[in-house]
Amino acid sequence: AQSVTQPDIHITVSEGASLELRCNYSYGATPYLFWYVQSPGQGLQLLLKYFSGDTLVQGIKGFEAEFKRSQSSFNLRKPSVHWSDAAEYFCAVDLPNTGTASKLTFGTGTRLQVTL
Amino acid sequence: DGGITQSPKYLFRKEGQNVTLSCEQNLNHDAMYWYRQDPGQGLRLIYYSQIVNDFQKGDIAEGYSVSREKKESFPLTVTSAQKNPTAFYLCASSPRDRATGELFFGEGSRLTVL
């Protein structure tokens, strides 16, 4: 079955430390890949996306992600975390060639806590 | 400013009552979506609409209904048939060009059924 997995439910890092959030997918073809961030009680904001081409993509707020086809992964990274990065992060996928709507499938999310 | 407006932000209802959540966008987007969010389950697609007067069921449509009479509006009704309606509901929209791939989200409506 098609799926998106975020194995880490909750991660705590110290401010200034590096961060990596994991995302794995299981699809027959390479999907479009996204990372979104959600602050408490708010909607979601797009951090970055991968459709094709360069497998290392840069996003907003200093985040980057690397697509690894061999591992079916799209992990999110940040070299130095700021306290304002505390939020919930969602990996999402969309299959190409499925009409004009983007029917994203989301992972279950990883909640990031930042300690000072 | 362009964006998506959801209302109300908080809503309390008694069991057995139908509830309608509003979603309005001024981004001139063709597609609109409703997602349900529960703790530990991520977001699940309820309904989506690619064009006015057309909508499709998502993964968890049972107990919900929608309409798309105007491009700007995509209200969601949570009916009494929905067995567990307490949740956070998110509306989103996207432009026709899927190459952008981005969904734009509202700030959500939290429904609590007492």
DSSP helical segment count of chain A: 0
Label the overall shape of chain B.
Answer: globular
Instruction: Please report the two chains with the greatest interface, counting residues with C-beta closer than 8 angstroms to the partner's C-beta.
Output: A-B, 25 and 31 residues
The helix-and-strand class of chain B reads: mainly beta
How does the overall form of chain A come out from the CA principal axes?
Answer: globular
Distance between the termini of chain B: 36 Å
Query: Could you list the spans of chain A in which at least 5 consecutive residues all have pLDDT below 50?
Result: none
Mean of residue pLDDT values of chain A: 92
Based on DSSP secondary structure assignment, what is the total number of beta strands of chain A?
12
Q: Characterize the biggest β-sheet of chain B.
A: 7 strands, mixed
Strand content of chain B: over 45%
Structural class label of chain A: mainly beta
Termini separation of chain A (Å)? 41 Å
Mean pLDDT of chain B: 92
Describe the structure using short key phrases.
heterodimer, A: 116 residues, mainly beta, six-stranded mixed β-sheet, four-stranded antiparallel β-sheet, 50% strand, B: 114 residues, seven-stranded mixed β-sheet, 51% strand, globular
What does this protein structure show overall?
Chain A starts with a strand and ends with a strand. Chain A is built from no helices and twelve strands. Chain A is mostly beta strands. In chain A, a hairpin with a 5-residue loop joins strand 7 and strand 8 (64-68). In chain A, strands 2, 5, 6, 10, 11 and 12 form a six-stranded mixed beta sheet that branches. In chain A, strands 3-9-8-7 form a four-stranded antiparallel beta sheet, with no helix packed on it. A two-stranded antiparallel sheet of chain A has the order 1-4. Chain A is 0% helix and 50% strand. In chain B, the strands form two sheets. In chain B, strands 2, 4, 5, 6, 9, 10 and 11 form a seven-stranded mixed beta sheet that branches. A four-stranded antiparallel beta sheet of chain B has the order 1-3-8-7, with no helix packed on it. The mean pLDDT of chain B is 92. In chain B, 0% of the residues lie in helices and 51% in strands. Chain B is mainly β and 114 residues long. In chain B, 38% of the residues are buried. The termini of chain B are far apart. The interface between A and B is medium-sized, with 25 and 31 residues.
